[in-house]
Amino acid sequence: MNKAEDIILFSFLLQGVCFGDSSISLPEKIEALSGSCVIINCTFEIPKDKVKHLTESATGLWLKDGTDKPEVFNSKYPKPNHFKGEITGKLHEKNCTTIFYNISSNHNGKYYFRIESGDLKQTYTGKTSTVNVIESPPKPTVKLYKDPDQEEVLEGSSVRLRCSAETLCSSPPPTLTWSFTPRIPLSESSRQQELLISDLNFTATHRHHRVTFTCTITYQLQDKNKTAQDNITLHVQYAPKISPSSGCYRTDVTVCFCEVDGNPPPELEWLLSGRPVSNSSNTSISEERLNSTGLRSSITLHQSLTHTSSLQCVGNNTRGTARKLLQLPPPLTSLNLSSVMTGVAVAAVLVIVFCAITCVCVRLSTKLKAQNEAADTYASLQLSAPPSEYETLNIKRGGDTL
Ligand SMILES: *[C@@H]1O[C@H](CO)[C@@H](O)[C@H](O)[C@H]1NC(C)=O
Ligand SMILES: *[C@@H]1O[C@H](CO)[C@@H](O)[C@H](O)[C@H]1NC(C)=O
Ligand SMILES: *[C@@H]1O[C@H](CO)[C@@H](O)[C@H](O)[C@H]1NC(C)=O
Ligand SMILES: *[C@@H]1O[C@H](CO)[C@@H](O)[C@H](O)[C@H]1NC(C)=O
Ligand SMILES: *[C@@H]1O[C@H](CO)[C@@H](O)[C@H](O)[C@H]1NC(C)=O
Ligand SMILES: *[C@@H]1O[C@H](CO)[C@@H](O)[C@H](O)[C@H]1NC(C)=O
Ligand SMILES: *[C@@H]1O[C@H](CO)[C@@H](O)[C@H](O)[C@H]1NC(C)=O
Ligand SMILES: *[C@@H]1O[C@H](CO)[C@@H](O)[C@H](O)[C@H]1NC(C)=O
Ligand SMILES: *[C@@H]1O[C@H](CO)[C@@H](O)[C@H](O)[C@H]1NC(C)=O
Ligand SMILES: *[C@@H]1O[C@H](CO)[C@@H](O)[C@H](O)[C@H]1NC(C)=O
């Protein structure tokens, strides 16, 4: 910079600070949500010699799309075709901050401010604000904060999901809400709605794997709610977990199965008496991927191997190892078979004996009834309901045998 430029710059600054100038400060571009409101943050300067004219009765005007056009807003004399709004700044304090309500596409355009106060009449053409009306609100942003050297979130580590949103003029102010699918209970969360930042803090578990977290910004407008959302799907690495339903059953062979779930997808190994089992004719293994993280393995054991003391299922991945000892069903022997037969025989005998006893009892009671009838017909009639055909027959026969 040379001296001449220095002097020019200095005098320019001096003019602004000491003598006042005719500059205005307002945002170059503003987005406004249709159906909502817009605030034009605005301050202006006036030449020093005109300051005395600026009073509390000053009028603020807005022109749109050209200084030759009729005003769209007048703080003192609003007209029916004017935009609805108000100057919230104090004009005599050179604050021309304005709010426009009930925004529609008519509000699209370039705005010029004009001040009128006594002899002070000035339109600011140096700077304008361009209002861009949008139909749907801008999307919020969801970010995952984690240990920077981790590719994926590890089980047990703390996770922070932050939703942040640029807000537009709205009454009531917009709100942020979280939702997630599948639904899971969350341990911690926090909200800082005034900044329109919402944090979700929690400790990662396998239940958070592949859960999609959605953050929604909602603008409550007069006739409807307008929303926009962003989402993030969490990927959590976790050690294998063996399903408690894993176990063995017997058909004519012994089949054991083991279900393991883990991320990264685990590998599964069988240990028979502590030794790894290979896929052979005596021990055939089949594997099936249940989903991106789950694996099911079945092992079919030859008869000769079921005497073996233990069968273990081991699942491992880079996060860890899980083991489960499976209870082998007791071997099916000839002794067992004969004991089953004995059981059946005993049961049969018991049934026969029971039937015999019942028979005897029935006969005994009918005999007694017959005796009673013979002894006292009146009493018998009183005590019992009209005898059935069968009973009558029995009684007769009983009478015969007596
Ligand atoms: C308005 O402008 C003033 C001065 O430039 C600034 O301090 C303030 O944060 C602005 N307000 C908004 C809502 O932009
Ligand atoms: C101008 O007025 C508005 C509304 O009253 C206020 O929010 C803003 O802070 C004021 N700006 C300055 C620079 O004082
Ligand atoms: C908002 O503007 C629409 C048309 O642009 C009009 O129908 C409605 O009555 C206005 N609402 C208010 C509260 O001014
Ligand atoms: C959320 O976690 C961040 C750091 O990860 C911490 O600064 C903040 O205080 C936590 N918020 C709550 C409510 O626990
Ligand atoms: C807008 O959302 C609020 C709260 O989320 C709800 O109470 C209200 O009923 C909704 N209004 C409409 C028109 O959907
Ligand atoms: C997540 O956001 C993307 C892009 O915005 C969208 O395509 C997808 O449908 C959303 N998923 C869910 C579950 O909301
Ligand atoms: C399979 O079982 C047979 C007899 O039961 C045995 O001779 C053979 O060595 C077994 N094979 C393997 C691979 O264990
Ligand atoms: C075991 O061998 C059978 C037959 O050779 C094959 O179908 C099966 O996929 C193998 N299982 C595994 C886990 O390799
Ligand atoms: C995958 O399968 C395992 C085992 O059945 C189950 O625990 C897990 O919830 C499944 N994961 C998904 C994402 O469906
Ligand atoms: C699982 O364990 C076996 C031995 O126990 C090992 O060779 C293999 O690398 C492990 N796999 C993973 C993914 O860690």
UniProtKB/TrEMBL annotation:
Residues 1-20 form the signal peptide. Residues 140-233, 240-329 form the Ig-like domain. It comes from the Eukaryota. It holds the Pfam family Ig_3. It is a single-pass membrane protein. The chain crosses the membrane at residues 340-362. The keyword Signal applies. It is found in: Membrane. Its main location: membrane. One of its GO terms (molecular function) is carbohydrate binding. GO terms for biological process: cell adhesion. Keywords: Cell adhesion, Disulfide bond, Lectin, Membrane, Signal, Transmembrane, Transmembrane helix. GO terms for cellular component: plasma membrane. InterPro entries: CD80_C2-set (IPR013162), Ig-like_dom (IPR007110), Ig-like_dom_sf (IPR036179), Ig-like_fold (IPR013783), Ig_sub (IPR003599), SIGLEC (IPR051036). PANTHER family: SIALIC ACID BINDING IMMUNOGLOBULIN-LIKE LECTIN, SIALIC ACID-BINDING IG-LIKE LECTIN 5. Belongs to the immunoglobulin superfamily. SIGLEC (sialic acid binding Ig-like lectin) family. This is Ig-like domain-containing protein.
